Amino acid sequence: MNDSNGEVLRTDLTSWTIGPYHGSLPAPMKLCLSLDGEIITDCEVETGFLHRGLEKACELHSWKATVAYADHLDPECAVFGELVLCLAVEQLAEIEVPLRAQCIRVVLAELARISGHLSFMVRMAKAVGSETIIHYLLRDREKILDLFELLTGARFSLNFLRYGGVSADVTDGFIERVLEVCELIRIRMKEYNDLFTFNFGFLKRTSEVAAISKNLVSHCGMTGPNARASGVSIDVRKVFPYSGYDRIDFEIPLGHGEGGVVGDVHDRFLIRLREITQSMEILKQLLDVVPAGDYMSTKCDQTSVIPPGESYVRIESSRGLLGCHVVSDGRNSPSRVQFRTPTVANLLAIPQIVRGIRIEDLPVVLASLDLGIAEADR
């Protein structure tokens, strides 16, 4: 470090431990930092404070009960855990899902994606100290939770999907309400941009900060919005379509370095903002042509035993690639259930991302990664 006279000031490295519970952290986790003044030189990440033994619990209960446990994989966007498990079991048991049920599932998934991205923006606003936008975002997220309640009777832990379909058909007025909420959020996007995206203070805190390179994305196996912000064009809905996504026309937003560097915090924010717009477009296309028919497979018996074998399915959650590996030995409960969650790769990348940034930028960088510690610990 140089002083005003150009002389070198020798400083010793200091060690900080943040967590497992701290206001600057997005969830219970611990960071062991080495600092040279205010610059982070090294970082170790420790998790496991939310471990619930969820995968083991699935193996100790019936096939039907596993859906409720998968519902708690990510409490913030519960439907993704249900969906990936149901798809894996349906692939194993060769259960064909009616088109109407597929449509309902995708509607719930895209609503959950919008809700998850709004929650991400709330955490970003908290990290940069923008209190006003938090109230706007939570107000609109409540509209999404109201839709969940209208259809499923629950706002967070839905427990609505079933092997072979969904537990109930859409309720009266649900489709109209979804379209109304989409139009409302489309109008509110201008408010988000005015109060947040184009805010000078927000730009100073996010532009050219903690950029993620394509090499780091590949090395850590990062997926989802964080990878797409770095210019990596990969989306499971396009590469491995499921539940009828191959019949829907939508775009995959990529980062272009509008904040100064491709893959910086600003790009990671913009990607999620634009994915909200794409999710609303998907919902409009689906709800214009909701297919008639059953919402549950007529050949699926919820009490039946899944035949022996194994399967693996992946979907695109709000945080990235979410995979599920299911093994059956012919009994009335799974032999093995394993989840591949996107947050694990993001945690692996943290030491490389934060090295060289200032300590005051750490909350913003962590918030920009959209960490779901609950799904990582399981």
Sheet with the most strands: spatial strand order: 1-2-3
SS content category: alpha+beta
CATH architectural name: Orthogonal Bundle
* CATH homologous superfamily assignment: Cytochrome-c3 Hydrogenase, chain B
Distance between the termini: 43 Å
**Total strand count, please?**
8
Estimated radius of gyration: 22 Å
Mean pLDDT: 88
Count of domains: 1
Q: Helix share of residues?
A: 40-55%
- pLDDT under 50 segments (min length 5)? none
- What string gives the helices and strands in order? EEEHHHHHEEHHHHHHEEEHHH
Strand content: 5-15%
What composes the largest sheet? Answer: 3 strands, antiparallel
CATH fold-level assignment: Cytochrome-c3 Hydrogenase, chain B
Number of alpha- plus pi-helical segments = 14
Give the CATH class.
Mainly Alpha
What is shown here, in short?
By secondary structure, the protein is α+β, with helices and mostly antiparallel strands. It is 47% helix and 12% strand. The protein has one domain (51-342): Orthogonal Bundle (Cytochrome-c3 Hydrogenase, chain B).
